[in-house]
Structure formats: C-alpha cells, structure tokens
Amino acid sequence: EVQLVESGGGLVQAGGSLRLSCAAFGFTSDRYAIGWFRQAPGKGREGVSCIFREDGSSYYADSVKGRFTISSDSAKNTVYLQMNSLKPEDTAVYYCAAAVGRGCGYEYDYWGQGTQVTVSS
User: Fold this and answer.
1) 7 close to 114: Cβ distance less than 8 angstroms
2) Which of 11, 36, 91, 92 would bridge 48 by S-S if both were Cys, CB 3.0 to 4.6 A apart?
C-alpha cells in the first residue's frame, strides 16, 4: 500500500526559504505523479505544484512560479518542494498526494498527513 510522509515545515520570516520533503513508500514503478497542495485557515485546498516521476514533467500554480521548485530524488524515493522568497500568504498546511499510474492533472489516490508552513511578516 502506498504511503506518503511530509516533512520540512516550520516558521520562517517573509523572504526566507524552506524545503519540504515527501517520502513515498510502496510504489512498484515510476509511473506516478506527486502533487503538492496547501490549505490555509478558512480557505479551500489549492494545488501548488506537481511532478510526473516517469518523465520529470513539472507544473506550478501561478502564485508560486519563479519561487518554488519541485524535484525528485529517485535514490531516496522522495519528492521535494523548494520554497524561496516566501510570503505570508504562503502560510498553510502543505500536503503531498500521489496519482498512481497517471500523470499530473488527474485525481489523486493517496495523501500525506500534512506539514505546517508559517511565514511571518
């Protein structure tokens, strides 16, 4: 069974950086996508970024383009979200999710527990 574990959240000042990790367990091939989502207090869930592991295709929400970078370490079976130039509006619980056998833009089958990112002004 697929399991996802997020880590790397914390408290930073505006303009600072964090790197989130999504460790993936239970995959039997590289044909899956990992998406990052976030949910701020009082707001709905927002898609942030996604990577299709098979070919490395990546996607970003307009709000984070130029600031966030998604990457994958196949040896560690981990997907990262490097977040630079953080803004207070980036404050949210960040989740990673997996779409097994499909690429980005499809429904996600598994979700991690979330990691809190707080950006102070």
Assistant:
1) no
2) 36
**pLDDT one digit per residue (tens) for the chain, 121 residues:** 889 999 999 999 999 999 999 999 998 888 899 999 999 999 999 999 999 988 889 999 999 999 999 999 888 889 999 999 999 999 999 999 999 988 898 899 999 999 999 999 9
DSSP secondary structure string for all residues of 19-80:
EEEEEEES-SSS-EEEEEEEE-TTS-EEEEEEEETTT--EEE-TTTTTTEEEEEETTTTEEE
Cβ-based neighbours of 30, under 8 Å, separated by 6 or more: 53, 54, 74
| Greatest Cα-to-Cα distance within the chain, rounded to the nearest angstrom | 43
Beta bridge partners of 78: 23, 73
Phi, psi of 73, rounded to the nearest 5 degrees: -115, 105
For Cα atoms 72, 55, 48, give the angle at the middle one, nearest 5 degrees.
Answer: 55
Q: Are 70 and 13 in contact (CB under 8 A)?
A: no
Q: Which residue has the tokens 């619980």?
A: 93
